[in-house]
Amino acid sequence: MRSRLEEARKTPLFRVWDLVLYALILVLVVVLFLAVGLKPSAGKLERVEALRDSDVIFSYDFLTDTYTVSDGVEVEKTEQGYRVTVRTGDEGYNVFEIDKGGSVKMVEANCSKHKECVNYMPAITDADGVILCAPHHLTITGGSSDIKDPVIG
Amino acid sequence: MKKIFTAICATLSAVCLFGCTPQEPTTTLPLKGKQYLFYTFGVPVYTAIYAYYDDEAEAAKADETVKDLQKLFAEVEDSLSASIDGSSVCRFNEAEAGATVEIDATAYEVLSIAKEMYALTEGAYNPAVGNSVDLWGFTPRFNEDDYEPTMPYDREYDEETKFVSLPDETYVEAFRTLCDFSKVEAWEDGGKYYMQKPEDSVTLEGVTYTMRLDLGGIGKGYAADRGAELLKERGYTRGYLNVGTSSLALMESASEETDHAWNLGFRHPRGDGNYISMLIKDECVSSSGDYENYYEYDGTRYCHIIDPFTGSPIAEDVVTATVLGLSAAQADAVSTALCVMGTERAIEFINEQLSDKTVVFVRRADEGKFEIVTNAEQYTLIEQSYRVASRVVDGVLEYVE
Ligand SMILES: [Zn+2]
What we know:
The complex is a heterodimer of chains A (153) and B (401). By secondary structure, chain A is α+β, with helices and mostly antiparallel strands. Chain A is 26% helix and 36% strand. Chain A contains three helices and ten strands, in the order ααβββββββαβββ. With 401 residues, chain B is of the alpha+beta class. Chain B is 31% helix and 28% strand. In chain B, strands 1-2-10-11-14-19-20-21-23 form a nine-stranded mixed β-sheet. A three-stranded antiparallel β-sheet of chain B has the order 3-7-6. Chain B has a three-stranded antiparallel β-sheet with strand order 12-13-22, with no helix packed on it. Chain B is globular, with a radius of gyration of 24 Å. Classes of the chains: A alpha+beta (153), B alpha+beta (401). The A-B interface holds A 51, 53-54, 110-115, 132, 134-135, 137, 139, 145-153 and B 33-39, 42-44, 46, 48, 50, 63, 66-67, 70, 142-145, 147, 157, 162, 239-240, 242, 245-246, 248, 250, 253-254, 262-269, 274, 277, 285-287, 289, 320, 322. Strand 10 (151-152) of chain A pairs parallel with strand 12 of chain B, so a sheet runs across the interface.
């Protein structure tokens, strides 16, 4: 049995297939390396936007540490980053905090009894992150407007 | 002569190339997707549109379309919202028993759909439960930051349950008698629309109550239907409209792999994520469930869906129902009705009325377990602890023990 295997190894056909196999493995390794190493870090939080319905009323760029602001929005500097107050109507307000380290969280609002935007919406830490405040028609997003598969229910 | 003929041919083909395909710009730009978000009916509305966004005019057109959608939705809300002063529904609700009220075309159309669905579901869908919805604490005023009891039946806000306590039984019974939707008349006369309020009224603690409508659910479905029409009119064939995740109008997706179907997730009624998913395209879907707005007392869940036959939150075993293949407005009404009916009647109803539509519902089984009942042919089960307790034999849906 063994001798037959050794014999087989000596035949040129076997060597050709060996080489093809090694080449394939090498190609696979290179492709995997490129895919992992060169792919832009998907979803990393690089900007944050506040929208009133579909209009952008505030945006902040983590890379350049700069922001743009519209009427009704106030920005204060804090130790970690910024504290942004958005006014809605005469009395409505939402306050969110930007940590320059890469996160955004709603910290105060008078939108409703349950304050879903403050109490139930997790902090934004990547581009797909989103905080909704339906009573104030306010959305804070990580900047992604990619289409996701829909959910019902 | 030959030259002229050639010139005409060239012109004609140029017109055809550039003129007959306004959706496709002259270059081979990639079709890109963009998701938009705005709010109506107190919920987020997601619009997904695939367009040639690298072309400035095409991008502006898509953005403009979403602005128009937002306007359209605001109009529907202004007509149907019970909490907007001057809306058709608000004026009906505030009117005296027996009064005739002029309503707008939108309210008339939605009311017509509601009447059809009321008849189809034999009263299980009934939008005339407005008083009961308010009594149990499920109108928007109860979630207002500065909620204070104002009606005689209002209770104080309970900090522990984060809700008002349970209502007085006298009011539950009294309001149940005010929801005979078959008595509501609506008609058109000389281009104007009218509704007549039933004569029914009850007086408790010196206050007289009459019928109040709640068209919020079916209104979101109706908005999805109208919005989908607008997207199609503007030439879009890929994307979707998702109104508060309770009503959806799906066009195609961009995925070749799924033959342009969307992988639609069905939200888990008791946990995070989805319990099943299904490949769907070019269809409307609506869903109702006991987990959207609810509170618990002594281990019992009280949700926003009112059973018109008891005047109280649904107590049957169906916790969520989703209907595909009707209009989103119809599907919203029917999915609510299935929650009211409970498993046995729901299965009968599906076999009688919805055998050519796709329906999925989740029921509460013994020992805190949940089961899925569906006539869907293909789906992916995600929540493995949910048993599929049904099968279809010769086109008939059966419950499987
Ligand atoms: Zn909020």
